[in-house]
Write a structure and sequence with these properties.
The complex is a heterodimer of chains A (473) and B (95).
Chain A: E1 3-13, E2 50-51, H1 52-64, E3 68-69, E4 72-73, E5 76-79, E6 89-92, E7 99-100, E8 103-108, E9 111-124, E10 128-132, E11 135-139, E12 146-152, H2 159-175, E13 188-197, E14 207-212, H3 215-234, E15 243-247, E16 252-255, E17 268-269, E18 276-277, H4 280-288, H5 294-303, H6 309-316, H7 319-331, H8 335-350, H9 364-375, H10 381-391, H11 398-405, H12 413-426, H13 428-435, H14 441-452, H15 459-472
Parallel strand pairs in A: 14-15
Antiparallel strand pairs in A: 1-12, 1-13, 3-7, 4-18, 5-6, 5-17, 7-9, 8-9, 9-12, 10-11, 13-14, 15-16
Helix pairs in contact in A: 2-3, 5-6, 7-8, 7-9, 9-10, 10-11, 12-14, 12-15, 13-14, 14-15
Chain B: H1 5-14, H2 21-38, E1 62-63, H3 73-77, E2 88-91
Classes of the chains: A alpha+beta (473), B mainly alpha (95).
Bound molecules: zinc ion.
Amino acid sequence: MYEMTLGLEIHCELKTESKIFCGCRNEFGGEPNTHCCPVCSGFPGVMPVLNEKAVEYTVRTGLALNCEISRYSKWDRKNYFYPDLPKAWQTSQYDLPLCKGGFVEYELDGKIKTVRINRIHLEEDAGKLLHEGGVSRIDYNRSGVPLMEIVTEPDLHSEAEAVAFLDGLKSVLKYIGVSDVKMQEGSLRCDVNLSVAKPGQKLGTRTETKNLNSFSAVKRSILFEYDRQCGVLNAGGTITQETRRWDDNKSVGYSMRGKEDAHDYRYFPEPDLMPVVLSGEKIEEIRKAIPRLKKERIAIYTEKLGLPLYDARILTADKDIADLFEGTAAVFKNPKKASNYIMSEIMRKGKREGSEDVEIGVSPAALAEILTLIDSGVISLAASKDVLDAVWNGAESPLAAVERLGLRQNSDSGELESAVKEVIAANASAAEQYKAGNQKVAAFLVGQVMKATKGKSNPKLVGELIEKLLKTN
Amino acid sequence: MKVTRKEVERIAALGRLELSEEQKREMEAHLSGMTEHFKMLDAVDTSSVPPTAHILDKVNVLRPDKAEPSFERDALLANAPERDGECYIVPRAVE
Ligand SMILES: [Zn+2]
């Protein structure tokens, strides 16, 4: 039985406002070639100027991943010919990257594991090719988007470890605010280096599968490549070091034959960019700007806000959820109720099928208002779902939605009493059971009243009325 | 230093250049002459000079992260040998 060894290279687009070497907007989507200028379209004679935020974000990442930050780093040209790269070289960092060393802790099956980081460097993203018929169309909107490459040591040994690590890393990158880490939009992509060896023997020859853009593709491509390498070795063959691609639709990996010859990137120092020198003070300044990470937030939620650890973990799995919770709990002073509502209603509504991300369509202020409306008895829990639907991704306030939809619940006991009487009359046997001491039918009767009044009654009041009416009868 | 025929062919392949026999011969002579010329640097004693990444003394030439208007697409695409109003068009290039 062979053991697999994995090392990952993670490409992460940074969430800056402008591109790395020019002022064009760094934005996903947009009409082709509309976020472009002579610099990012690779016109001759143009001069790149480095975006300071891209440097700061890379250093921030290095600090969050326990790296050593280089006091002196420089730029290099990585030369290759492919039309996604208009200059025919990618401006990158070769021998003096911004961050070196480091490690990431992640959790798998309740155990904390560690992956060492080899380096983090900054480079520019390439454009996009759209293959149609006999031609390729080129869109350079993505060309020049700041791209951070995180290279791990070969410390992973299963597809489950790789995915758990990536999930942990993704969470950190989102927490520190350097990237929106949307795998579907390509702002987080992964290359997998994989080799196999019998336990105790030295590492085998590795292959590299490039450009995986979902956790599922990472997992399946690893299993495919592991099986393939084992098959080759078991048949007496040898593994060739090569670059491979993953076809996600067909679930097969394949070799990019003939590209090996072009693998000589002929790196040389970039003469158009000056080295980056970072002082100790500057590095400390960047360190201070790192937002609170998951661990610290869990501590605050459990210790200061009194939430169970279970809640704290679920709320902090995604930064957007954690931010929503904190913002809501700052206004609506019942953290547990806020937590319950977010874990049920918000997560149900924000989770799109097939996506690893949760999308939030409600502001902390609006959510606090909804919770206050429930708490003060203005609307029922059931009606709050309609209010949430109404304000989701919209400008309407919860209270305005309540009035527009007529969701204000009836707390008029006279009116309610007649509704309750009607329900009791229509459910005589249930009423008898209640009188005979069967408390369980109370919930049934409340439900019937709620149904009869289309969810607009105050269930607490209804319960009290049922008790009063059936006891005095 | 002599640049061999094999090296010329490899460099041409990396640059996606197709050279005739005649051109290869020319390149051999040109590149050999250039490397020969630069060899005069070897005569300078640099043992006391620290290595540098750049010939200029400047560091940290940075700009603030501020988006500015991009170029007119038509103006950019006007330089393309082939285009369709939205994109540059090149011969199909699939890795
Ligand atoms: Zn640009």
